[in-house]
Each structure stands twice: as structure tokens, then as C-alpha cells.
Specification:
The chain is mostly helical and about 180 residues long. It has six helices and two strands, in the order αααββααα.
Length: about 180
Amino acid sequence: MKHKTKAQIAKEIGISRETLRRIAKLPGAPASLNADEWRAFYGRHRVQPLPGVTAPVLASGEPIDGQKLDYQTARTVRMVLAAERERIALEQARSNLMDVAEAREIFTKAGTVVKMGLLRMCNDLPPVLEGRGPVEIQKILRAKVESVLTQMADAVDVLRAEYAADLAANDPGRSQTPAE
């Protein structure tokens, strides 16, 4: 179908007038005002990602390496590359994540260590604190609390090391420990 203006062609094929002006400068652009010819020409020259290829290519299959691109093509290339960077960042983030069940197990065991330490402290402290002054009681309590917290930290370190070893044994590509 013939049109009177390039603006009408742009509207019919679904692109902006600016994009049509840019692709009209490319070699081999149709000289006629036939929308079908312009649609086919635009389809051959727009940027499309190919499955399994990380670098964008033109729809014609030509790779883009250092070519001078029009604004729309460059913008599309930029968006494709940004999406690829996001995909890579997401994969890296996932490799640092810990399974929820494993995290619950570690926190449950750490909580158990703290609970046991606090209960033991409740049983051990009364005879030790009997007849002591406030300053001495404070020193003794601080030492006991620090001891319980140190035991918890040591237990968490051991559990994380076990998790990392299990992870490395089951998935050699993810031999890292979870994010600290």
C-alpha cells in the first residue's frame, strides 16, 4: 500500500518518525513510499538477541562489533547488554545464597547452644555470686555472658564450615561459603 508521507509509513509499521528517518539513511533503504518494503527493510536492520548468544546481532545475523549504530539500534544493544549483566549478577547472587532449611538448622543449633549456656549459667551463678559486691558480680556476669556468646559464635562457625563442605561436595561449582 502506498502512502503520501514517511510519517504515515512509520505509523503503519509501528515505529517513530525519527526511527524511520534514521533507517532511511542506511544503505539499501527503499526509495518508494511502500509500507511493505519499509517494514521488510526495518525488520532486516533492527537489533535482536539470538538464543545462546550473549552479544546482540542485527536481525540479518551480522554481529555488532564496533559498528557505528543509529540511536535506536544502539539503545537496543545497550538494553540487551544491560539485561545480560543483570542475568549474570543474579546468577552470582544466587550462588551466595543459603538454602532456607540450612539457615534454619544453623540458627536452631546456635539457639540451642545459647539456651544451654544461659541455663547452665543460671545454675552455676548463685553459689558463685553469694556474698559478693556489685562490682565483683558485674565482672563475673560479664565473663559468663561473654563465654556463652563465644560458644554460640564458635558453634555458628562450625555449622557454616560444615554447610560449605556439604555444598562443595554436592555442587563443586558453588564451593564458596554463604555471604558473611
